[in-house]
Amino acid sequence: MSFPPSTELPRFPAGFLWGAATSAYQVEGAAAEDGRTASIWDTFCRTPGKVFQGHTGEVAVDHYHRFREDVRLMAELGLTAYRFSVAWPRVQPTGHGPGVQLGLDFYRRLADELLAAGITPVATLYHWDLPQELESAGGWPERATAERFAEYAALVGEALGDRVGHWTTLNEPWCSAFLGYGSGVHAPGRTDPVAALRAAHHLNLGHGLAVTALRGVLPGAARLSVALNLHAVRPLTPSAADRDAARRIDAVGNRVFLGPMLEGFYPEDLLADTAHLTDWSFVRDGDPKEIHQPLDWLGVNYYTPTVVSATAEGATPAREDGHGGGTASPWPGADRVGFHRAPGERTAMGWAVDPSGLHQLLTDLARRHPDLPLMVTENGAAYVDEPDADGAFDDPERAAYIHAHLAAVHRARADGADVRGYFTWSLLDNFEWAYGYAKRFGLVHVDFPTQTRTPKSSAGWYARVARTGELHPPVAP
Ligand code: FCB
């Protein structure tokens, strides 16, 4: 195998964070241990027909018990950062009151193990596992949930602030609001467009209140962020109607969060597009200001572009938005917008491989918010990984996917985007929400019945890139 001389390879600066990401419900298991109670995902998984073959995160990949082995794997992969999430129902089971020390101890031990291995811990406070008790009281459509989230954030910040320097409030609030309460393909499975918009606002508010609460308890050097799954929206054709469809999806997909969080207001066009559903009177005076807190970096999760068109009178809009089926739409106020698969190669999720969408998002953000450092907090691909005769997993498609997206990050940096790190989704194969264990995103294969971890060939390649900071091609040219 021959590689070009390393001086010709795209290079990332020293200190660039090379990471992998997971989330609590997808990897931890230990669902009923040490005081953890049910989250909305435990309930959803038990509801017939919601998750592929009735799979649950009860055991997941047993990270709760195997985190030491998993940190060793990360060290072997040359990772310099690990993005994990804290399970709210593990550390504050009812969503109220004092923290559960046994639950907090798990994250203390995890952070200590990471620090000892020279790996920067990056903690996300909410990756979709709302305590069921808060959902039973109304969930994210209710303002009280935002207030509870800020209290929980302070509690975790106090417990881990001496060890964890990088914090993310919410992961992909778009999914929480619009897949959780709009299309219902995610927990809690409601299908009510107004509830979805109310949830979006209270997630925004929860973010703002949590940032304020965290600033009160964390050391000054702590770096706070939010991770958004921004949609790289493209009109199917250059027609005015398709461009308006793209504007509409940009509003309810991206600017519904970017507006209040980064600019302090909801976009006028979003309010107009959804005026037939709600007058947004759940937004109280002062809320946009509360939401608009200075951030130290922004996390961008990206997998595939979003191609949209206006739908002709009488025709049924195409629904290939990559966000699962369901009869209800996750796009309030956009009933006439059609969603199309972008052309080209696809992953096992059916998502088109198109790194230009990542470049587009990063450079657009850099133009609009030149002083806000960025990190790619999720990017990766599911493929069908089969062992060869020796039990090894060769996954050149995954390495090619990550390579192409890292090249896009490198180009975006050259074009002025201040991207400070990249986290591939995911470290390990894990519980992929409504798809259960049927979709594998890991650099490391997990044999679910035995919990055996086997790094795939993509892991070896990624380790080389992380160690050298050079974007080596995954296969010899
Ligand atoms: C993202 C989620 C993450 C994972 C990937 C594939 O939307 O944040 O948990 O499921 O998709």
Protein model, in words:
With 477 residues, the protein is α/β, with parallel strands linked by helices. The chain has helices at residues 24-27, 40-46, 63-76, 88-91, 101-116, 132-136, 143-160, 173-179, 193-217, 240-263, 268-273, 287-291, 356-368, 396-414, 457-468; strands spanning 17-21, 81-85, 120-126, 166-171, 223-228, 233-235, 298-301, 306-310, 337-340, 374-378, 419-425, 444-447, 452-455. The strands form three sheets. The protein has an eight-stranded parallel beta barrel, surrounded by five helices. A three-stranded mixed β-sheet has the order 6-8-9, with helices on one face. Strands 12-13 form a two-stranded antiparallel ribbon. Strand 10 (374-378), helix 14 (396-414) and strand 11 form a beta-alpha-beta unit. The mean pLDDT is 97. Beta-D-fucopyranose binds at residues 23, 26, 171-172, 175, 229, 301, 378, 425, 432-433, 441. Beta-D-fucopyranose (FCB) is lined by residues 23, 26, 171-172, 175, 229, 301, 378, 425, 432-433, 441.
The chain-level mean pLDDT equals 97
Strand content: 5-15%
Question: How would a textbook summarize the main sheet?
Answer: 8 strands, parallel, barrel
- The strands making up the biggest β-sheet line up spatially as 1-2-3-4-5-7-10-11
Unreliable stretches, pLDDT < 50, 5 or more residues? none
Q: Could you tell me the number of beta strands?
A: 13
SSE order, one letter for each helix or strand: EHHHEHHEHHEHHEEHHHEEEHEHEEEH
How big is the Rg?
Answer: 21 Å
Portion of residues within helices: 25-40%
Question: What is the helix tally?
Answer: 15
